[in-house]
């Protein structure tokens, strides 16, 4: 029996090993994850497959910097939620991101459980906002499907990590 994914995520990370690990972890947590390696690939993926429940965005990216990728995606959909996951968030980044309506950041290195918590919080906030503004639809997804209920994390269930 297969469960519907808890949500769709776009993972924008240029470091191959980290991208692979995060992709694998979130897939095990029952998220549908599309990994890309640079800012332009993120914009292209969004144009073809967006919106996503959350975009996980590094800032120091090749081809197109993270803030510019965010700006281009926000032009397509100003309501698209982002979680900026970066080791180097400068004051100029914060100002630019706040101007775009992006306030959620997670510094690297981060623990996988913290990443999962932040994704869940963002998705819950989006759902709550959608419920207030539109009582007919259950969530902001264009297909009208409600998000699945939260379940315990596979990370918390893994005995070998205790």
From TrEMBL:
The modification 4-aspartylphosphate is found at residue 58. Residues 8-123 form the Response regulatory domain. PROSITE patterns: RESPONSE_REGULATORY. It holds the Pfam family Response_reg. Keywords: DNA-binding, Phosphoprotein, Transcription, Transcription regulation, Two-component regulatory system. SMART domains: REC. PANTHER family: REGULATOR OF RPOS (PTHR48111), TWO-COMPONENT RESPONSE REGULATOR ORR33 (PTHR48111:SF1). This is Response regulator. It comes from Paludisphaera mucosa.
